[in-house]
Amino acid sequence: MANSIGRFTIILACWAACVSGLPIFNHFAVKSSSLDPYPTKPRITFRADGTFKVTVFSDLHYGENPWDAWGPQQDVNSTALMKKVLADEKPDYVVINGDLVTGENTFRENSTRLIDEIMAPLNEAKVPFSTTQGNHDNQANISHFEEIQREQSVAPLSYTRFAPPGIGGEGGPGNYWVPIYEKTDDKIPVLILWFFDSRGGFSEGPNSTSIPDWVDSTVASWIQSETTQMNAVWGPSENRGALAFVHIPPHYIQAMQPGLNSTRDPGLNADVMGQGSAQATVDSTDQGKDQPFWDALNANVKNLHAVVSGHDHGNEWCIRETTKQVIFCFDKHSGYGGYGSPGWGHGVRNIVFSSPDPTHGLETWIRLEDGETRARVILDENYM
Ligand SMILES: *[C@@H]1O[C@H](CO)[C@@H](O)[C@H](O)[C@H]1NC(C)=O
Ligand SMILES: *[C@@H]1O[C@H](CO)[C@@H](O)[C@H](O)[C@H]1NC(C)=O
Ligand SMILES: *[C@@H]1O[C@H](CO)[C@@H](O)[C@H](O)[C@H]1NC(C)=O
Ligand SMILES: *[C@@H]1O[C@H](CO)[C@@H](O)[C@H](O)[C@H]1NC(C)=O
Ligand SMILES: *[C@@H]1O[C@H](CO)[C@@H](O)[C@H](O)[C@H]1NC(C)=O
């Protein structure tokens, strides 16, 4: 980094930090990073026509029952779906939103080979992407940590990162953000994609024990410190758009389901949410454990267009959540593995920004494998 740019950045940060009375360590954090977490990777940008398309795969569930005919054929079909959708949609960014594998069916000696299988179509399409991990990705023979490490080693266009040490709690290292710029040479991003680790599943090894299924409270302070740095270097949070991904729906989403209106909130609604369907519902004493995360996300990240989750394979709807007024969307069960029902189909959620203006709404819909689309909604201030 050129000295002059570094010094300019430090002065700006010092000004912001001194004015707001922030502790001194912020100066060093800003100095050392300049806030580009991907200095060696291609910058991700909007298209020249001002649009940006994200395609979300979810719940691929590779690796079921490798000992019989049923599981391996599911994976053949899931790979075919990925290839077809990537070729048709030509997204600018891909998200795989958790439960990449059915970890409880995997073997110690080769479990991460499934990650190689999932990465193959993405490597072939040369599309930038990143992943969240789900409850089935933490099991006796595999973990979120191992999956991310493997992904980073086999997929050159993976933007998945680990949270700093101490952030994320047991089994939850996958908390990070990805900056999206309007143009390659821009200094300041117009959109931040946030990714959170809702953990769940089981610890590794023969005496595997269950892991809490909510975003750990340490992530709340991390969101605050990251956004403080962003604001110091890039200016106020209002200058950027945001979109968040987390495998298990936040706790409050479950209470929204009875109020769905199929005209306003279209899409399959075939999974009645119960115990285990949303974060922090392991038992009654665990209710609301994702509250620090939910509060910090909504307080610090402005222009948050939507929070997107998978986990409940029979749901596709979006709704405006009433405690924070933020829009929530389910993505679409993509994998032939994992539970399902013949009528549900397999596909993806597409999300399209039509302008780099951070306040501009976006359009989203479900695309099925055969190309059929449904549940199209505009996510903006008029939505609900
Ligand atoms: C892993 O090994 C098991 C047992 O040998 C085998 O059945 C399975 O197909 C292998 N899985 C992968 C992904 O290579
Ligand atoms: C895989 O896809 C083919 C073609 O669409 C279908 O006929 C078959 O039933 C699918 N297999 C599984 C295991 O879902
Ligand atoms: C884990 O891998 C080992 C070694 O392949 C295997 O014996 C075991 O059945 C696997 N599954 C679990 C849940 O431990
Ligand atoms: C697992 O638990 C058993 C029974 O308590 C114990 O004997 C064994 O040492 C434990 N194994 C590991 C790897 O911790
Ligand atoms: C459902 O939403 C539509 C479109 O916004 C609206 O016209 C209709 O009144 C709503 N129905 C109910 C029962 O709220």
From TrEMBL:
Pfam families for this protein: Metallophos
Region forming the signal peptide: 1-21
InterPro entries the UniProt entry points to: Calcineurin-like_PHP, Metallo-depent_PP-like
CDD domains to which the protein is assigned, alphabetical: MPP_Dcr2
Coiled-coil positions: none
Keywords for this protein: Signal
GO MF, any single term: hydrolase activity, acting on ester bonds
SUPFAM superfamilies: Metallo-dependent phosphatases
Gene3D superfamilies: 3.60.21.10
Domain Calcineurin-like phosphoesterase stretches: 52-314
Cellular compartments per GO CC: cytoplasm
Superkingdom to which the source organism belongs: Eukaryota
This protein's name: Calcineurin-like phosphoesterase domain-containing protein
Protein's organism: Jaapia argillacea MUCL 33604
